[in-house]
Automatic annotation (TrEMBL):
It comes from the Bacteria. The keyword Lyase does not apply. It holds the Pfam family GidB. InterPro entries: rRNA_ssu_MeTfrase_G, SAM-dependent_MTases_sf. This is Ribosomal RNA small subunit methyltransferase G. Specifically methylates the N7 position of a guanine in 16S rRNA. Keywords: Coiled coil, Cytoplasm, Methyltransferase, rRNA processing, S-adenosyl-L-methionine, Transferase. Gene3D superfamilies: Vaccinia Virus protein VP39. Belongs to the methyltransferase superfamily. RNA methyltransferase RsmG family. GO terms for cellular component: cytosol. It is found in: Cytoplasm. S-adenosyl-L-methionine binds at G72, L77, A123, E124, R138. Residues 104-133 form a coiled coil.
C-alpha cells in the first residue's frame, strides 16, 4: 500500500514551493478525511493522482488575485488545493454540513492558510452577500442545477469553473436552457494540465454576462 504523503514527480512541478503544505494536506486527508467519511478509504492511496493534482491544475484557469467561492467544498476539493497552490487568491469555502466545515476549519488552521475563509451555508442562502470573480465546484450537482447556485454569486463577467468528468459535454448540452435564461456570455469545455497530469482535468467554464435577477424583496449587502 502506497504512502499518500509521497508526492509524485508531477506534484513537485505543479505545487513548487508549496509542495510541503500540499503533502501535509494529503496526510490530513488520508487520516482525518477517511476517519470522518469525507473521502472513501480506497481513495487514500490515490489522493495525488485522482484528487490533489486534478484540482491543482484548475489554477491555470483562475485569473491573478481573484476572489473565489468554492461551492460544496466537502473535503476541500478543489478549494483548499487551490488555496495552497495560489496564495494570491482570496477563497471562501462554502459548505452547509457542520462536520465538513469543522474539518475544513481544522485544515485551514493546520496548513496556516491566511487566504481562506470557511462559511457554513448553502449557496442559495448567501447569494446577496457576494460578487465573486470566480466560483468553483467539484462533484456537487449536474451543471443545470449548479449554474442556478453559482451564477448569483458572481459579478458580471465572473466565471464558474466546474470540474466535470466524462459527461461534461452532455451536461453542457442539457444546461443550455438554464444558461440561456441567465444570459451567459460564454459556456465551454476546457482541458487543463495537459502534459502535466493524466488524464487532463476537464472543466466547464461559464462566464456571466450580467448579475442574475435576485429574488423579490432581497437586499444587496452594504459595503
Amino acid at each position: 500500500m502506497g504512502d499518500p504523503r509521497s508526492a509524485p514527480a508531477e506534484a513537485r512541478q505543479i505545487f513548487g514551493d508549496a509542495l510541503p503544505v500540499a503533502e501535509r494536506f494529503a496526510e490530513f486527508l488520508a487520516d482525518a478525511g477517511v476517519v470522518r467519511g469525507l473521502i472513501g478509504p480506497r481513495e487514500a492511496d490515490r489522493l495525488w493522482e485522482r484528487h490533489l493534482l486534478n484540482c491543482a491544475v484548475l489554477s491555470e484557469a483562475v485569473p491573478e488575485s481573484s476572489t473565489v467561492i468554492d461551492i460544496g467544498s466537502g473535503a476541500g476539493l478543489p478549494g483548499l488545493v487551490l488555496a495552497i497552490v495560489r496564495p494570491d487568491l482570496s477563497i471562501t469555502l462554502l459548505e452547509p454540513l457542520l462536520r465538513r466545515t469543522t474539518f475544513l476549519s481544522e485544515a485551514v488552521d493546520l496548513l496556516k492558510l491566511a487566504n481562506v475563509e470557511v462559511r457554513r451555508a448553502r449557496a442559495e442562502e448567501v447569494a446577496r452577500d457576494y460578487e465573486a470573480d470566480v466560483v468553483t465546484a467539484r462533484a456537487v450537482a449536474p451543471l443545470e442545477r449548479l449554474v442556478t447556485w453559482a451564477l448569483p454569486l458572481l459579478r458580471p463577467g465572473g466565471e464558474l469553473l466546474a470540474l466535470k468528468g466524462e459527461r461534461a459535454a452532455q451536461e453542457l448540452d442539457e444546461a443550455a436552457p438554464v444558461l440561456q435564461r441567465f444570459g451567459v456570455r460564454t459556456a465551454e469545455l476546457r482541458r487543463l494540465g495537459q502534459g502535466r497530469v493524466e488524464p487532463p482535468t476537464t472543466i466547464v467554464r461559464v462566464v456571466a454576462e450580467r448579475t442574475p435577477r435576485r429574488a423579490k424583496g432581497s437586499r444587496k449587502r452594504s459595503s
